[in-house]
Specification:
about 140 residues; 2 helices; globular; alpha+beta
Length: about 140
């Protein structure tokens, strides 16, 4: 089960998602220089992660794509009580930065530009070795 990082025409295989995301961030930072935070978006339907550097609350530079292994969960393993509708799928957007204010500003800027997101379902917050992470769960 490998993850592939594709950035600026190059690609590399790594054994874990954390290693792949860290590699994508290092590649972007080596091209752009100092980055104040990261925009990491996961498309669950294809199991790909999109990583982009953020400076002053705005995404900059090229996007790195982390391609994950095929999802292992099949439809018959989902609970049978309520079938999911195509427009009722939960989405997650992850913001990382060096300070809580940076992370919250990135999330607020992103949400302000997304009128298709009527409400946020849940938030997840954690501190990391290199700063802070905010996960925004929403439906469109």
């Amino acid at each position: 089960m490998n993850y592939r990082v594709e950035y600026n025409g190059d690609d590399i295989d790594l054994p874990t998602l954390d290693a792949a995301l860290d590699n994508a961030k290092r590649a972007i930072a080596s091209d752009l220089g100092p980055i104040s935070g990261w925009s990491v978006e996961h498309d669950e339907s294809i199991n790909d992660w999109f990583v982009q550097g953020v400076v002053d609350g705005k995404a900059v530079g090229a996007t790195a794509v982390v391609t994950g292994p095929e999802p292992m969960l099949t439809a018959r393993n989902f609970p049978r009580h309520a079938p999911a509708l195509a427009d009722d799928l939960a989405h997650r957007r992850v913001f990382t930065g060096s300070t809580p204010a940076d992370v919250l500003a990135m999330a607020a800027n992103w949400l302000a530009g997304r009128p298709e997101v009527p409400a946020v379902d849940d938030l997840g917050w954690r501190s990391r070795r290199d700063g802070f992470e905010l996960r925004v769960y929403y439906r469109v």
